[in-house]
C-alpha cells in the first residue's frame, strides 16, 4: 500500500511532542491505521463534497510552505509524499495509492504545511477544498474518525523519522538551544538536534553552511536559509506556525491562553458554532503541559503527560474550526469600546464579542543571586524527557511540596542517579496527594529533605553546585540541575485597569463593576469577559477543575452573545422608528 520510509532512524522510546501516540511505537509500521484504504461505500457518501480531477505525471498537488491546501483521495495512479533535505534534494517517503488519502494535522489549521505531494503517473483524484473537507469530516463522523487517526499517526511519524522538519545546531546545555528545542517539541514540529560537543555531523553542517560558533544556536530551514539565535516568535514566523491574523475581523469568541481551561473553552465554543480564536504565548498546555505525568485525571488510569493531553485538546479544537495563534503574547486589553480588543506583541490586535481569559500563572522563581543567569542552564521549571536527558546518572534537586514537584521527582528518578526533594515545611500532607507521598517515601532514589532551602547557586556559565541549609546545617552538593516548582503568580499584568483583581493579582469573578452578583460565577467585572483556570481568584489549581471551568463557561458566553444580539436588534428597530 505504501512505500516504507527511507532508512528510518530508530524511533525514540518516549514521544513528548504533544501529539498523542500509543506506546511510542513507530506509526509507519501500522499501515492500516496510518495509511488506511477507504471503502467504495465511503467514497459514495462523500461525492457531494468534492470534485473529480485528472492530473498529469509529476504535477504538484501541494508544496511545502503553502497554507490551506486541499485534501485528495486517489482513485487511480499514485501520489508521492516527499520532503527535501538541507541541500534541496527530494526524499519520497510515502506513496498513496487507490482509495488512500493525503494530508496530516495541518489540514485542520492554516499553518504552512511540512511536506509536498506530486502525482506519480497520470492520476485521478477527488479534490476537496479546505472548507468542504471540514464539512465532510463533521457530516460523516465515521470517515472523519479514520482520517483523524491517520493524521495524528502521520504527524507522529514525521516527528519520529525527522521528516518535513528542520535542523538545530547548538549546545544542548545552552539556554537558548534548550528553549528552541522545547518550543519545537511542545508544538509538535519535527526537528533534528545537533550538539556541537557530541554530534560528528555538526562540524560538516557548520562548514557547509558557513556557520560560525558565534552564530549558535542556528536553525537550518529546508530551503537552506539560516535563522540565528531566534526568539520563539521569530522561529514561529520563520516556520509558518503562526496563522495569519485578521485585525479587522470580529470573532464571536477569543480565548487568551491555551492551557487546559482555555483549550476546553475553545473546544466547547467552536463545537457549538462560535467563531473562535485561541491566542497562546508559547505552546498549548500551559503549566500542565510541562507535567511529566498526570495520574489523577479522570479517565486515564495509567496517567497521561500534560503535553499529550494538551495535544489531544488542540486537535479537537481545530477539528471544530477554532483558530490557534501560536507565539502571540497578549500585551494589553482595550476595554473602551463595545467589543474586546486584545493588543498583541508586535502591534497586532484582534477583536471579539466575548472573551475568555485563561492566561494561568507564571512560575515563581527562587529570587537568589544568579537564578536568572542559570535559567535553562541548570535551573528548570519543567521535568519532561527533554530535561531528563540533561541529567542522566546525575544527582538532581527538585524544589517544592506540591503534586507537580512530587511527579517531577518520581519521573526524574527513572534516569537520574538520585533525586533530592527540598521543601521548606516539615510535612507534605497539606500540599501533596497521599499516593505520591507514599511513592516518594518508598523510592530508594528519592530523599525528602524537610525544612530545607537553597541559599546559593554556584557556577560560571552553567550551574555547577548548590548550597542549601537544612536541619543538619549548611551543605554543598555538586548538583548541576535544579527543578523549581514552588508555585506561580497570575499572568494578569497585560489586563491593566479593565478588570477587578484581588490583592494577589488574580481576576475577581462573580460580581460586576458595581459589586452586584453576575449570572455566572466566572463572569468578571466587565460584561462578556469571563475568567477560568488558575488566573481566576479562588479557583482550584487542578487540571480537572480547569477543564471543567473552561467547558461550563461557554453557557455564560452564549447567554451574553444572545443578549447582545437582542439589544442590537432593539436599537436597530428604535432607529428605524425614529427615521
UniProtKB/TrEMBL annotation:
Recorded superkingdom: Bacteria
Residues covered by the Cyclic nucleotide-binding domain: 34-154
Annotated Pro residues bias: 1-12
UniProt keyword annotations, A-Z: Flavoprotein, Oxidoreductase
Gene3D superfamilies listed in its UniProt record: FAD/NAD(P)-binding domain, Jelly Rolls
Region feature Disordered, mapped onto this chain: 1-28
PROSITE patterns xrefs: CNMP_BINDING_3 (PS50042)
Pfam families listed in its UniProt record: cNMP_binding, Pyr_redox_2
InterPro entries to which the protein is assigned, alphabetical: cNMP-bd_dom (IPR000595), cNMP-bd_dom_sf (IPR018490), FAD/NAD-bd_sf (IPR036188), FAD/NAD-binding_dom (IPR023753), Ferredoxin-NADP_redctase_2 (IPR050097), RmlC-like_jellyroll (IPR014710)
PANTHER family referenced in this protein's UniProt entry, alphabetically: THIOREDOXIN REDUCTASE 1-RELATED-RELATED
Name of the protein in question: Thioredoxin reductase
Annotated source species: Parasphingorhabdus litoris
